[in-house]
Every structure is written in C-alpha cells, then in structure tokens.
Description:
- GO terms for molecular function: ribosomal small subunit binding.
- The chain is an alpha+beta fold.
- It has one domain: K homology (KH) domain (GMP Synthetase, Chain A, domain 3, 2-Layer Sandwich), CATH 3.30.300.20.
- It is built from 4 helices and 3 strands, in the order H-E-E-H-H-E-H.
- It has helices at residues 3-24, 58-70, 72-82, 98-124, and strands spanning 34-41, 47-54, 90-95.
- Helix 1 crosses helix 3 (72-82).
- The mean pLDDT is 92.
Amino acid sequence: MDNKRINRISEEVKKVVSDVITNKLKDPRISPMTSVTHVEVTRDLRYAKIYVSVLGEEIEKKSTLEGLENSKGFIRKEIGDRIDLRYVPEPIFHVDDSIEHSIYISKLIEKVNEEDEKKRRGTDE
C-alpha cells in the first residue's frame, strides 16, 4: 500500500482519537492534560499505534493508560464511524514522554545559560 495513503490514514486516526479523548470520553481516570502526539497505522490497516502524552505524575500516566485501554472498543467504533475503511484498525496505546523530555532539556539549557551569564559578569568586573 502507498506510504502517502498510510500517512493520511494515520493523520485522520490521530484527529479522530484526539477529538474522542477530548470530547467524548467521560472516564475520570483519563487526565484532562492528555494529547495524542503521533499515530502509526500498520500497512495492512489492522493496528494503530497511538502515542499519547500525559502531563503529570507517573500515577496519572498509568491511570490514563488504563482508562484508554478500557475505552478501546468505543474508540475503535468512533474511528470506524468517522473514517471509511475496509478494516478499522485496533488501537494500541503507548505513553509518549517526548514533550516532558523536551521541557527537561529546555530547563537544563536555561540553567547552563544562567550559569554562563553569571561567570561572564564575574570576569567582567
């Protein structure tokens, strides 16, 4: 199957799942600070790896993942209703820590810049 088509389907699945998580799911275990960062649909359209970022503690991440796992059937039904495909991919959820890692790296860079600025001020005087 064409890679462009797979990428388009992946983006459509991402839009649908993002909307469902934000507006349709009422599970209290799912954190309101949950966002879909990336979706990979397999070439045979049987599975969709959905990478979800949850801002918060490790407990919130685990409970959000549990809530999403329990909502798999509903999410799959919504994907099938909104996207016209022969096979509706089964969602497989993964936690994506890339946003939190980026925030951590940014803080480290700011800290190094501040220390560098202090050293420069000390040598200029």
